[in-house]
Please model this.
Amino acid sequence: MASNPSSPGKILIVDDDPSVVYFYEKTLRRDGHTVVSVTSGEAALQAIAIQEFDLALLDIKMKGLDGLVVQAKIHERWPATIVIIVTAHASLDTAVAALREGAFDYLFKPCSIEALRTSVERGLHKRQGELRRSQLESPIIAPAASTDQPAHPATPLPQDSWRGSKSQVAPPRFIQYDDLIVDPVRHLMTLGGVPFELSVMEFNLISYLVQVAPRVISAEELVREVQHYVADSSEARETIRSHIYHLRVKIRRATGREVIRTVRGVGYVITTD
Model:
């Protein structure tokens, strides 16, 4: 949970699985949220036609309108509504598409209570922060000094007083090279839609290799950038070799592919050919 809990929100649940809906409803109502549940994309459109929600939990794969279509309709009608995509398919491809279209976050089914609460809490915190900022930006009409002088709008607060420097650019959510996708936030990696469970070291290694691809990276650089200490070439090769081996085995067994190539005497490089 966030350190500064958000206020309870009005949440729309869209999922065609009654057991999932029950789980979401029970958890979120227990946390004090107002919940409206529907079991199809078409019913979701009827719900958003008559009321605005702070946050929507959308299943991707449903009969009829899927979650991505519903997401677009929600943002068309209520641009400030936070959308969290839920998918049973352990592939980052769908999540990437959803986030590119404006989703705030994604969850994989089955998700834990902790994961659900954390994502919803973060989403509502963002929603409420944006509402406060929009209020700060709204011009305030000052009272007239006398009946002879018209009222003038007060000068809005400078945006940088609450938003921070415009030069600060948020890092991208995903690191991608062809069909190899890494999500550092959720510590997930997929290759061709196949998910992988990686150790912290393996995940950090593949993340760095993907981030700088197609550059060839020496073992010394990997130790320095991933493990944060300096080693000579011999020590670095010994340190990195076993981790690269285990990564290759996991990827080969799951996909039959070789995506980490050794350039003899130089280092390692990502290749998805």
The two ends are 41 Å apart (CA to CA). The chain has nine helices and eleven strands.
